[in-house]
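#random but structural
TW: two for the price of one
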Amino acid sequence: MEKLSQYNIAFKGLKEGNHIFDYQIGASFFEHIENSLVDTADVHVRITLEKRSSFMSLDIQLKGTVRLTCDRCLELYDQPVHHKAGLFIKFGETESEEGDDVIWLHPDDYQINVAQIIYEYISLSVPLKHVHPADKEGKSSCNPEMLKKIEEYSRPQEVKTDERWDQLKNLLNNN
C-alpha cells in the first residue's frame, strides 16, 4: 500500500468542516492492486470529507470509464461508470457492528488511505455482464464477425446417432 500513499488523507490537522479531495484514477492505480477486475480506467473521484469532533463522514462520487473485455465478442471496450456513496468514520478502541457504511479507526490514527475504498466503489459500479453498449439505433456495437460466428455455432446441429446404439436402446424398451 505504500505505492498508493498519495491516497492518504491526513485528517488530524484539518479543521472541522468540509474538505474536498480530487483524484484522477488511471491504469497506474490498478497496477498496485492484485487480481483487479479492471486494468485501465479514466475515472474522476471526488471525496468530500466532513470532519466533526466525534466522527467524520466521506461523500464519494466517481464518474468516468473503465476498459473491459466484452463477454460476447471478446474485444475491449470502454464502459461508463458512475457511483455515489457515503461512509462514516468513527473512532474507538474496538469495532462494533453498525453496518457496511461505517469504518472504525483507532483514536491514535491520524490518516486514512482511501485507495481500497476507491477501488471497491469502482468495482461495484462495473455491471456484472460486460457487453458493448448499443449504438444510437439500438444495434449491438460488438464485432460483427464474432456475432456471425456466434450465430453460426448457436444453431441447433443435427445429431447423427450410430444405428448400433439405436438397436441396443430398442432392447431396453422391450422389457
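TW: number two ↓
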Amino acid sequence: MAFVVTQACVDVKDKSCIQVCPADCLFEGGRMMYINQDLCINCGACEAVCPTQAIRFDEELDGDESMFVQVNEQFFEGLDIARGGRKMGLIEHDAEFVAQLPST
C-alpha cells in the first residue's frame, strides 16, 4: 500500500506536497511530481494538501489511473537519489508515459 501521484499533476506541479512531507519522498520531475515508494511512510500528508487531488492511495486507483503505480516507479529507475526530494530540486526527467503526453 502506497501513495501515488497521478496524471492530474502533469503540467501543474503545485509542490505544496513537498513542503508537508516528513519523509522527503516527493521529487519534482520535468512535468509532474513523483513519490519514491522506498522513502514514503504512508502518512497521507501530501494527499491532504494536493489541490488537484492528484495524489491517491494505490488501492483506490481506478482503471487507467492504476498505471501510475508503475509510472512513479519508472521515474526513479537509474536515478541516484541519495538525497530527498527537497534537496534534489528539479530533475529534468519524466517517466516515458508522462514525457509523451501532449502539453496542457
